[in-house]
Amino acid sequence: MSVRSNRWRPAAAVLGAAMVLTGASACAKSEESPTGSAAGPAPAASQVVQSAAPGAATCTIDQYGGTRIDLKTAKVGFSQSEKEANPFRIAETKSIEDEAAKLGITNLTTANANSQFNKQISDVEQMIDSGVQLLVIAPLNSDGWDSVFAKASAKKVPIITIDRKINATPCKDYLTFIGSDFAEQGKRAADEMAKALGNSGEVAILLGAPGNNVTTLRTSGFKDQIAKIAPGIKVTFEQTGNFSREEGQKVTEQLLQSNPDIKGIYGENDEMALGAVTALKGAGKKAGDVKIVSIDGTKGAVEGIVNGWISAVIESNPRFGPLAFGTAGKFFAGEAVGQDIIISDRAYDTTNAKTDVGSAY
User: Where are the alpha helices (DSSP H) in 259-341?
Assistant: First the structure.
């Protein structure tokens, strides 16, 4: 766990329906991207909030409990779930730190659970014990947070969860969830797979880590949509790659041994998809022999589209800093905030990958 006295780091943000933060650079510890860098303009990467449905539930500080505070002088805790070898996690943490610095928040405590759930629970409990007044959590698992909720409730510490949802009650156990519609991401990936395969063929799924709603919903969304729009596509292989490039490669190597003629691979994140690319190259496959669709929007995956190894990528935008702190600011000012704040994600394919790679992370 570390406490950082933030100094200014450039970041541009517009708070409102569209939350904008300049693109964060990212690199993975794993092997190189499947291509060299593709040239192109770098449009601002943004989180755009979907319009809330009429009557959507909201939460205020009077409902939740607590005291109005100034974020600049507040003690804030951020808990990251996974080691920062994954570009998504790099960009996510950087966005939180950059926005805190931009807002003048000088008392930001950060901790990384390194994919150990017990450590994440311990990290967050220590933050509460140390007197944090706001928690931003990227949860590793969706269940098992009862002890944290009990501590936070006793001290009226609002919890904002980002990118993965916790199975609990908003405006009671935690304040709000900010993230993507994961089932919709799966459906959009299915649409792209159907297009790439011409609505027929055998497909493998590289599943994300078990125990969280991202994996569950990206899987069900994909399968439900495939069954609906392309019944000629059959899912014949599913195995977890734990959102890891190395494990994605190993699982794909096993897949190719049992089914060397697989036609499509759905990676539930880009890291596993890039691992699959490495496995395909090792098996002597050529770009395009196996259609790959994935979710995230990392530079490596978008470059993979440019060079033909990946068919399409559905974005999952990790730049939560402006929206997380903007939501907290509204809450502490006494305004109502949504209990579920869902962002819209873009998509990359052969029509825009080369020109838009600069907006990837």
Answer: 270-282, 299-306, 321-332
E strand segments, the chain: 2-4, 18-20, 46-49, 58-59, 76-80, 108-112, 134-137, 159-162, 176-180, 201-207, 233-240, 264-267, 291-296, 312-315, 337-338, 340-344, 347-348
What whole-number distance in Å separates Cα of residue 166 and Cα of residue 212?
A: 8
> Strands, E, within 123-247: which ranges?
134-137, 159-162, 176-180, 201-207, 233-240
The terminus-to-terminus CA distance of the chain in angstroms comes to 25
Q: What mean pLDDT comes out for the span 236-256?
A: 97
Task: Tell me the per-residue pLDDT of 276-328, one tens digit each, with 9 for 90 and over.
Answer: 999 999 999 999 999 999 999 999 999 999 999 999 999 999 999 999 999 99
Q: What share of the chain is helix, strand, coil (3-state, %, to 5)?
A: 35, 20, 40
Residue with tokens 């990946």: 310
Residues 140, 113: Cα–Cα separation, whole Å: 8
Handedness of CA 193, 194, 195, 201 (dihedral sign): positive
185-199 tens-digit pLDDT = 999 999 999 999 999
What's the CA gap between 286 and 289, in Å, rounded?
6
216 burial type by CB count under 10 A (0-12 exposed, 13-18 middle, 19+ buried): middle
> Which residues are CB-neighbours of 342 under 8 A, at least 6 positions away?
49, 50, 179, 180, 181
Q: CA 109, 142, 84, 307: dihedral to nearest 10 degrees?
A: -140
Tokens coding 169: 């009650």
Q: What is the pTM of this model?
A: 0.86
**3-class secondary structure, 333:** coil
131: left (phi over 0), alpha (psi -120 to 50) or beta: left
> Based on the number of CB atoms within 10 Å of its own CB, is 346 exposed (0-12), middle (13-18) or buried (19 or more)?
middle
Token pair for 78: 């951020």
Q: Where do we find the tokens 């933050």?
A: 127
